[in-house]
Hints:
The complex is a heterodimer of chains A (315) and B (171). Chain A has ten helices and 18 strands. By secondary structure, chain A is an alpha/beta fold. Chain A folds into two domains: 2-131, Beta-Lactamase (2-Layer Sandwich); 144-313, Rossmann fold, CATH 3.40.50.300. In chain A, helix 7 (221-231) packs parallel to helix 8. Chain A is globular and about 60 Å long. The model of chain A has no long low-confidence stretch (mean pLDDT 86).
Amino acid sequence: METAIRVRTEAARFEQAAALLPYDLRQAACKMPERDKARAEEFRLRAGRPPMVAGPAGEREIPHCPGPVRPEDLGLVLEVASRASAHTVLDRVKCGFVTVRGGHRVGICGSAVVRDGEIHNLRQMSSLAIRIAHEVPGAAAGVLPKLLEGGKLHSTLLLSPPGGGKTTLLRDLVRCISDGVGMEALRVGLADERGEVAAMYEGVPQVDVGERTDVMDGCPKGAALAMLLRGMNPQVLAADEITAAEDIEALEQAAGCGVALLCTAHGGSLRDLWTRPLYRRLMDAGLFRRVVLIRAGEAGRHYEVTEPERGKWLC
Amino acid sequence: MLKLAGALILMAGASSIGFGAAAQLRARVTSLRALIGGLELMERELSFRLTPMPDLLAVVAKRAQAPACYFFARCRDSLDRLGEKSLGELWREALDAEPDLLLSGEETLVLAGLGEVLGRYDGDGQREALESALAELARCLERAEEDRNRLGRMYGVLGMGAGALTVILLL
């Protein structure tokens, strides 16, 4: 029964993301079986190639599609994603993605227009990846107890390759910590630069991130973390995808204030943390006492929790 | 008595055709002014607030003068079908669906071209397109005002004259 509800919920999310597609493609996507919709993770559209849907088993063509993706189809997707307001999302287009209502993320690829050494716009799009936002209540159930010691939450880094489920796990951890699921409830400040974690729309999170979560979205993580720290008195600070030196500086400042950190980073193994200078700085500073390594498999995600200082695997 | 009534009806009919044509010229001027006012408002909103398109069209539909406000309202409502069609196509459809705008072929082309730019480029790009369209429409408005002043009265007099001539010939 619970599985059936879950499948329906995920299928509804699939259809919400499919609403970004041009009419013919959307019709074809919505004809897919419910179970396939629920398992889908991304739509992959490449000009001149058949439209694909990606899931745990890889990419496959969307059945009953009228033909290959046309260049104008890609423009139409971006027009829908921006609600015909490219001028409001151009800064995000320059970063390579746009987040839309519901938390779905449209990744953009094409020929860049460069001015003064910086990407100014995209002249021609060649492919798009629409990542379907997934809310998996309970994803953190097996992980959270291992992040606690004497009821106190350790600063934790969630690690996986792109598309590995970091954001999904982070969202559920935030929800559990904020609602006090299996622990004392804590105030969480969430720096949601790309709007993927809380999927804010008109000031209201579109997914459950807990009752004691304050969300700062749409601004660089470094600035958001500093503002949350100064203004919202958080007990836990959460941020998705640490990518810049400014993020690390803000995290160092927050850790110095006694706030627990909850962050995600790209990487396939602990070794990746030590080989990349940005993350090595994080690890050298000893900011994180736990690292959760996410491994994707046919049967679902598997989480390995380790203490980086001691290199000890907890599960 | 019957002849007199027939003559009056003929005079009134011919005059109304003339005055109708003159009113059409006045309405064209009103329509172009309303459109220019609406587009200027769009330009200001884009300059200062980078307003998203749905909000922008809602503001212009509310504040523009008739008949332009009906056109903008139609565009705003048609955004529900974004994805089935591009904004450019929806804009063009709204133009075609508002005959009260009384636009010439040239003016329709200018506005349709603007629809292909709106919502697709950065704020500066859209403002430039709006400025260019506004300059074109301002020229069209000048010509429409000239036509109204030059031809408006003439159409009225011609209508009455034609009516009178027909009455004289028939009598």
